[in-house]
Amino acid sequence: MKAYTYGPAPTPSQALTFHAAAPRPVLPPGSSCLLLRITHVTLNPADLVCLRLLPSWIPPLRSNPVPGMDFAGEVVEIGEGVTNPDADADSDRGLNVGDRVCGAVGLKEVFTGKGTLAEFVTIESTLVATVPTNWGGGEAAGVMGIAGQTAWAMVRRVVGEGSHDMTGMRVLVNGASGGVGTVLVQICKGFGADVVAVCSGAGEQLVKELGADEVIDYQAHAALEDAIAERPGQHPFDVIFDCVGVQALYERSPQYLKPHGQFINIVGGWSQGVVPFVRNKMRPRLLGGTPRSYSLFLLSASGDYAREVAALVEQGIVKRAVIDCEFPLEQAAEAFEKLAAGRAKGKVVIRVQSCSL
Ligand SMILES: NC(=O)c1ccc[n+]([C@@H]2O[C@H](COP(=O)([O-])OP(=O)(O)OC[C@H]3O[C@@H](n4cnc5c(N)ncnc54)[C@H](OP(=O)(O)O)[C@@H]3O)[C@@H](O)[C@H]2O)c1
């Protein structure tokens, strides 16, 4: 089969190695996995981190360091250890050979070399969702993958399990035109929130189409936090979702976030995530700490999230997947370079095999 492996290098084209005849994985006896024929992989900023940082000389990465987290494909074989959902009257997860499925593997799988950028992969059956009706593989991988799961998990943290109600809430989505933001805007709007989106002018029309009530072009202002604080006649926000990692947005938040509002950041690098997290959580208000709740959310990819996002698609809450561009498998390095440029509107897709369904 065709597949990519990777080694640590500064650029994707240096890091990725294309294999035209890599060994195809097989399901061991009793396996709880599915053998999938992958049709599409979508990329996430975390894929770039893996490419740059994870040394392939560390066992077990050495044996099979395939990159990639999001996937869409079709079931080729079902492991003997997969509980037959058809036999379970309560289950709506009847998986059969030929079914189209999607979702994401976690960093654990990528760390151990079991990424998705290959024609065939074995994936735990619990990690997959069924591709929503009339959706293509690239769309499904992008929305049921890491980005959509993150958007949904952040909203779920706010509304609580089982609730779909954000009526009367005002939310700010920073980074609204990215993979996470494009799904986040749709969920918040679909749940009844008033959505203010932050993106560049190039993404304004798109995020309005996704449901944003108001758009702030961060490039038109010297400081985003000033622009938000100085908006005339605006009510404060109940929630700020920061998909960019702007520390000043949090520090100034008492001027535009309600006292019991929530600030949720998902950007976890040292300068945008870890150090601010320690400072924002630990510094007492008496010593100048910001008097607003702060959290740094880190997704653990899950089949439950993937299936819940698929349900939101079927219910018409998430109406569309935003695809920036699509590359054939042989041009995966270009796809990673496109992602690395940081300007993609929605998802960058790699077409692994043409979809037969
Ligand atoms: N914690 C977690 O579990 C988790 C999960 C997923 C993602 N993340 C992180 O969340 C961030 C967003 O992920 P993503 O997949 O949405 O990334 P992405 O798709 O690569 O984001 C690209 C988008 O960001 C916009 N953008 C760039 N700079 C901006 C700025 N200063 N203000 C507003 N928008 C800006 C770009 O549009 P313009 O250039 O037109 O502005 C582009 O549309 C990444 O840092 C990622 O690592 C974390």
TrEMBL record:
Pfam families assigned: ADH_N, ADH_zinc_N_2
Protein keywords: Oxidoreductase
Keyword Chloroplast set for record: no
Alphabetical list of PROSITE patterns matching this protein: QOR_ZETA_CRYSTAL (PS01162)
InterPro entries found in the cross-reference section: ADH-like_N (IPR013154), ER (IPR020843), GroES-like_sf (IPR011032), NAD(P)-bd_dom_sf (IPR036291), Quin_OxRdtase/zeta-crystal_CS (IPR002364), YIM1/Zinc_Alcohol_DH_Fams (IPR050700)
Boundaries of every Enoyl reductase (ER) domain copy: 11-350
Name of protein: Enoyl reductase (ER) domain-containing protein
